Amino acid sequence: MHSFGHRANAVATFAVTILAAMCFAASFSDNFNTPAPTASVKILNINWFQKEANGNDEVSMTLNISADLLSLFTWNTKQVFVFVAAEYETPQNSLNQVSLWDGIISAKEHAKFLIHTTNKYRFIDQATI
Ligand SMILES: *[C@@H]1O[C@H](CO)[C@@H](O)[C@H](O)[C@H]1NC(C)=O
User: Fold this and answer.
1) Residue 7 burial (10 A CB sphere; 0-12, 13-18, 19+)
2) Ligand 1 within 6 A of 43 CB?
3) Is the CB–ligand 1 distance for residue 6 below 6 Å?
4) What whole-number distance in Å separates Cα of residue 81 and Cα of residue 105?
5) From the CA of 54, how far away is ligand 1's center (Å)?
6) pLDDT for 26-85, tens place per residue?
7) Is 42 in the pocket of ligand 1 (CB under 6 A)?
8) Its domain of life (predicted)?
9) Distance separating alpha carbons of residues 120 and 105, to the nearest angstrom
10) To test the ligand 1 pocket, which listed residue (116, 117, 118) has its Cβ within 8 A of the most ligand atoms?
11) Rounded Cα distance, 25 and 57, in Å
12) Are 57 and 96 spatial neighbours (Cβ–Cβ below 8 Å)?
């Protein structure tokens, strides 16, 4: 009656049921969190602006990036990936997107920050031909 197979089946079924209930609870409890992150980026200086041999333009800037991402952190948040991207229109492309900076916030203690930096990734605009 209580063979090894029956006991193993009962334990496995119980474990999967608990796991499913916990998954549901984790996903359901996120609905009660309404995050309201704020961020601001200030361009403090254009350090240099140059035309490359192939016609592309490149600029280096000094930025102040500040953000308050505290509301994104719940018990269910492991880390938050943040990035600053420049989006602009040129006659050639209706949308240009260039990543200027990014970071990984791995703890709530670091979710409110002000960073004084230059663009981490090169800001190059495609040459118009
Ligand atoms: C930029 O950030 C620095 C400190 O990180 C601060 O001293 C400076 O006042 C900030 N500049 C502006 C315009 O917010």
Assistant:
1) exposed
2) no
3) no
4) 6
5) 35
6) 888 888 888 899 999 999 999 999 999 988 999 999 999 999 999 999 888 899 999 999
7) yes
8) Eukaryota
9) 16
10) 116
11) 51
12) no
